[in-house]
Specification:
- The complex is a heterodimer of chains A (253) and B (92).
- Chain A is mostly helical and 253 residues long.
- Helices cover 70% and strands 0% of the residues of chain A.
- Chain A contains nine helices and no strands.
- In chain A, helix 5 runs antiparallel to helix 7, helix 6 packs across helix 7 and helix 7 runs antiparallel to helix 9.
- Chain B has 92 residues and is mostly helical.
- In chain B, helix 2 packs antiparallel against helix 3.
- Chain B is rod-shaped, with a radius of gyration of 21 Å.
- The termini of chain B are close together.
- Classes of the chains: A mainly alpha (253), B mainly alpha (92).
- At the A-B interface, helix 3, helix 7 and helix 9 of A face helix 1 and helix 3 of B.
Chain lengths: 253, 92
Amino acid sequence: MLALTFPPINELIRWRDIFPGLNKVGLIALIAAVLGIIIFMTAGTKDPLKAPSGVRNLAESGVTFIENDIVMQTMGRDGLAWTPFLLSIFIFVYLCNVPGIIPFFQMPATARMAIPLFLALVVWVIYNVVGFKHNGLGYIGGMVWPKGVPVFMRPLVGVIEFLSNIILRPFSLAVRLFANMLAGHMLLITFAFLTNALVFAETKKLFLIPLSILPFFMLVFLTAFEVLVGLLQAYIFTILTAVYIDAARHPVH
Amino acid sequence: MEAIARLIADTNPVQTPSEAKAANAAIGAGFAYGLAAIGPGVGIGYVVGKAIEAMARQPEAAGMVRTTMFLGIAFTEALALIGFVVFILLGL
């Protein structure tokens, strides 16, 4: 009766190639990139003097959200030039997260480590380049020998700051997105699997079938929860990118 | 689940070294995630509670507080997520 075996993780998130070099996860990432480009290109061709409607409305609310809720809150007015970059990251991450709950896709592309890791490395390169551009070699200096800290604490704080800036930030940025989406995906799988196991139980006990409504309700609830998580993780990834870039521009706080 | 079934059935009490290793890894994975969730659980609760307090006292600062709250949650949550990754690496 208890012979319920959870499928191994490699069967859950590893997909066969559709054709060599492109599997389902790659296809979802490709669709996310192309869809984002199409939405904003069509929105860009609309007449800006008329009242916005349709796609343009969507694009404008996205830009307003990035400007007001992310850039102005973390970087201030002189960070508004970063809006296009942050908007691209936000839209791409969101469109990669959302297929986790769309029927027939059922897999967030960010639940494989490749895409979060690549995005985190892009962010890492960009904030380090920005740091060197704004502060020159003082960027490294301010990191390992921070001003505004008591002298006897500086070696300790310097080591922590250096490790945090160079290794821990991209690592935690990538792992946060990846682990959140993978956890959500596996929760959905678990409850779908339980529902299935109760309905098609080998023992053919009839009382098991009405019991299957419980994991099914949990599945519906978690699907709604994943809508929120996908948006929230895209928001957090973008806002942390903005914070890291801002910290590299003005390292002394 | 397999481990529970085997425990109940008690069909094969003799373990080979690889089986013993897998069993211990499964136990370790459970502890890894459970222990890693304690601190962030308390921490996120504290962060959100304080943020709600601040928003209730000063509703006009709600936007700024919310942004900072999400930042705080993100940093606190990272520890639990590392525990989750260790759990997957060990257990599944």
